Amino acid sequence: MLGEGAAPGQVAQLRHALGLDLPLHTQYGRYVWQVAHGDFGQSFKFQVPVRRVIFERYPATLQLAFLGLVVCATIAIPSLSFVRPR
């Protein structure tokens, strides 16, 4: 995030700001607590809350899922006629 030429002080400051200087079990506990309360953090790439990124892309995800369901049903339903009961 800082680049290769970052000063050690800047790296230490970023590690502290991101909570990376804490023990691993503490980091994980904070993560689980925040996710359980609907806080997925901040996107590094877009600099907005991750929840916003997810909700902006959710309609396209639903469209793809529905299209996949239609394609699977189109293939599966006609093939049921070839299955003979025992």
Describe the protein.
The chain is mostly helical and 86 residues long. It folds into two domains: 1-39, no CATH class; 41-86. Helices cover 63% and strands 0% of the residues. It has three helices and no strands. It has helices at 8-18, 24-36, 50-79. The longest helix has 30 residues, at 50-79.
Summarize the structure.
Helix content is 63%, strand content 0%. By secondary structure, it is mainly α.
Contiguous runs where pLDDT drops below 50 for at least 5 residues: none
Content of β-strand? under 5%
Oligomeric grouping of the chains: single chain
Question: How many domains make up the coordinates?
Answer: 2
Task: Assign the structural class, choosing from mainly alpha, mainly beta, alpha/beta, alpha+beta, or little secondary structure.
Answer: mainly alpha
What is the terminal-to-terminal distance? 63 Å
Number of helices, counting only DSSP H or I runs of 4 residues or more: 3
Rg from Cα: 23 Å
Order of H and E elements: HHH
